[in-house]
Amino acid sequence: MLIRRENPGDVEAVRAVVALAFAPYQAARTPGRPDGLPAEVTLLDALRADPGWLPELSLVAPAPAPAPAKAPGGGIAGHVVCTRAHVGAVPVLGLGPLSVHPDHQRRGVGSALVHAALGAAEALGAPLVALLGDPAYYSRFGFEHAETHGVTAPDPAWGEHFQVRVFERRVPPPRGPFVYAKPFSTVDGV
């Protein structure tokens, strides 16, 4: 499966994929959002305007042909992004949102995107990547409970769902409080 860096022409298709992927969960989390969009769409828009946005870590999985160009998602099967975050003063990465178009779910698209994001993060020298997600899903990629590595979640209620993937380096990984890029704390419903 091909995974590539997002191009400027992909932005609207990526927004559509994120909206479709998270729409089933939106009503239960934040009913009555005025724009009707899942919070992850608003988050992605805010991240693009934030200094923590790293364009080289915004990755897409093109949909296999034939994919109608006019269809929602415009030929994009999935998207993942890593943005600049910090553990204490040390720059690290936060992974998410990860989105897969409903027509392409359970076909390995999400796994391929996570593998590509982790490979790129490690190649760029990041000491670790953190995320909030299902431990049963993300443990297959080497994610572990963050507190195992001395990293504390922005919200203690996240418990075992806040995880880190630590990369092997000559120096030990940073320890301390994790801070996502600013939009993660300013967008309602995330």
Characterise the protein shown here.
This protein has a single domain, classed as Aminopeptidase (3-Layer(aba) Sandwich). Strand 3 and strand 4 form a beta hairpin. The chain is built from 5 helices and 9 strands, in the order βααβββαβαββββα. The chain is α+β, with helices and mostly antiparallel strands and 190 residues long. The protein is globular, with a radius of gyration of 16 Å. One of its GO terms (molecular function) is acyltransferase activity, transferring groups other than amino-acyl groups. This is Putative acetyltransferase. It comes from Microbispora rosea.
| Largest sheet composition | 9 strands, mixed
Helix count, DSSP H or I runs of 4 or more residues: 5
Q: Measured on Cα atoms, how large is the radius of gyration?
A: 16 Å
* Unreliable stretches: none
CATH superfamily: Gcn5-related N-acetyltransferase (GNAT)
The domain count comes to 1
Total strands: 9
CATH class group: Alpha Beta
Shape field: globular
- Structure classification: alpha+beta
